[in-house]
Amino acid sequence: MTRLWSWLALIVGLLYFFVPLIATVEFSLRMERGRYSFRAYEVVLSDPRFQQTFLYSTVMAFCTILMGVLIVVPTAYWVRLKLPRLRPVVEFVTLLPLVIPPIVVVFGYIRLYNTSSLLPLTGSLTGTNFLLLMGYTVLALPYMYRAVDTGLRSIDVATLTEAAQSLGAGWITILWRVILPNVLVAVLSGAFLTFAIVIGEFVLAALLNRPAFGPYMQLLGANRAYEPAALAVIAFGITWACMGLIQLVTRFSRHTRIKR
């Protein structure tokens, strides 16, 4: 009986997940009356705004990943090595972006860094892009930190550090040539999640008036019918591609460890 209920719950969950997706895909193929076609996808992919916004968000995603690695990896490493008592505090801080709405974050940025403040970052495109980058880094912090912390748990940080120090390595060398290669799979997992978050984010980019992919999706959805469905399918495919890459990297890492 328990097995029956388990299968029933699984079937209900799959239907709840796949039925809207199938309906969206089917609707996106009906742009031309009387037959199915990929016309909506052709229109979206050939739109210069799609190319511009997707390229912008992709560049911002890679910058966010780099910034997240530079902040999270040394912090998680140092907390695990020297400050284990502060782990609950650091974990609490990294969870705050899941509690604080992005609209609060961006209004705080605008209020603090507007053109009349001591550090007027919103007065230039470079400054506004930097604010958006910092906002994305904050939003991705819980996922990047959890991934890196999980990777650090799987290795003996203290022993690796002592061995590297006995060979004369400095802290930067230890981080770059010892710790980072051992948690590379965890970093890649956090990176793929970060990429998916940045590509679909709307609030920060819209309120900072930047040409990102999220506001473009919203603008297209407000003025078209079939193209937004095609764009939603494309965005969904990008997200699931990131999830699939995480699984492939994890399996490859486990397979390599087993061989060793």
TrEMBL record:
Per its UniProt entry, which superkingdom is the organism in? Answer: Bacteria
Q: Which InterPro entries match?
A: MetI-like, MetI-like_sf
Q: What is its main location?
A: membrane
Q: Where are the transmembrane segments?
A: 6-29, 54-77, 89-110, 122-145, 183-208, 228-250
Instruction: Supply the PROSITE patterns for this chain.
Output: ABC_TM1 (PS50928)
Q: Which SUPFAM superfamilies match?
A: MetI-like
Question: Keywords, A to Z?
Answer: Cell inner membrane, Cell membrane, Membrane, Transmembrane, Transmembrane helix, Transport
**In the UniProt record, which is one GO cellular component term?**
plasma membrane
Q: Spell out the family assignment given in the record's similarity comment.
A: Belongs to the binding-protein-dependent transport system permease family.
- How does the entry describe its membrane topology? Multi-pass membrane protein
Q: Which Gene Ontology biological process is one annotated for this entry? A: transmembrane transport
Q: What is this protein called?
A: Spermidine/putrescine ABC transporter permease
Specify the species. Answer: Haematobacter massiliensis
Q: What is the lineage of its organism?
A: Bacteria, Pseudomonadati, Pseudomonadota, Alphaproteobacteria, Rhodobacterales
Positions in coiled-coil regions: none
Q: Where in the cell is it found?
A: Cell inner membrane; Cell membrane
